[in-house]
Amino acid sequence: MLTITQDLHDRIVAHARRDHPDEACGVVAGPAGTGRPERFIPMLNAARSPTFYEFDSGDLLKLYREMDDRDEEPVVVYHSHTATEAYPSRTDISYANEPGAHYVLVSTADTDDAGPFQFRSYRIVDGEVTEEDVRIVG
Description:
The radius of gyration is 14 Å and the shape is globular. It has helices spanning 6-19, 57-69, 90-95, and strands at 2-5, 25-31, 39-43, 72-81, 102-107, 118-125, 128-132, 134-137. The two termini are 16 Å apart. By secondary structure, the protein is α/β, with parallel strands linked by helices. The mean pLDDT is 93. Strand 2 (25-31) and strand 3 form a beta hairpin. It has one domain: Cytidine Deaminase, domain 2 (3-Layer(aba) Sandwich).
């Protein structure tokens, strides 16, 4: 289960809406070994695409060095889908290289009766996708 604060949830959703119609992407870091998402880090989608996201390699290297210096790890890796449901695509699955991370997808498309967006979390390990519950706390 992903437990995330209302503030972090709202910041991820706001980033997804702000970057629409392009996919948004980012990371929420937390203290290494705790599994607690704490520090919101919106990233630039280097692909600037409505159907694909890509972290800029230089920005990603800088982020990992910064997290290492702060004894943090990526607890949440998030991105948005602009025209489809919040479920990992084959490309998303192939790029998932953080087995300990929660992969959050936000859909900014109104794909069902759930409203204008979906916020869902998955574990992706060795190509296997498992949806998990999301608990939003104050």
